[in-house]
Amino acid sequence: MTKPTKPTKKHTGEFKCKVTLESFIKDDVAGVARKHGVHPTQVSNWRKDLKENGHLAFENGNGKVENQLKRKVAQLEQLIGRKEVEINLLKGFVNFYAPPDGK
Questions:
Q1: What 3 state SS string does the chain have?
Q2: What is the per-residue pLDDT across 39-65, written as a single tens digit (0 to 9) for each?
Q3: pTM check: above 0.70
Q4: Per-domain residue ranges for the chain?
């Protein structure tokens, strides 16, 4: 039998910012997390996000969306590069096997 899961809480950007800043001011992640009913690991993750992304960290996931888009662009650039190599190989094969008189 599977254990029922709790629904994930959705915290506002304002709440995240408030809790994170308070944890920096008091330099007590566990105490601030307990005070606001949030897991200390979550507060630590918010602190990390704030350090890495500044004010964008809590804007409704825009920083996360931006990072996902950057990864997708990198994947597509790699795919384009591979396709260019394949095209050049095929061009080489066509030129190699084409009759010299062009017919």
A1: CCCCCCCCCCCCHHHHHHHHHHHHHHCCHHHHHHHHCCCHHHHHHHHHHHHHHHHHHHCCCHHHHHHHHHHHHHHHHHHHHHHHHHHHHHHHHHHHHCCCCCC
A2: 999 999 999 988 887 877 777 655 567
A3: no
A4: 11-60, 61-103
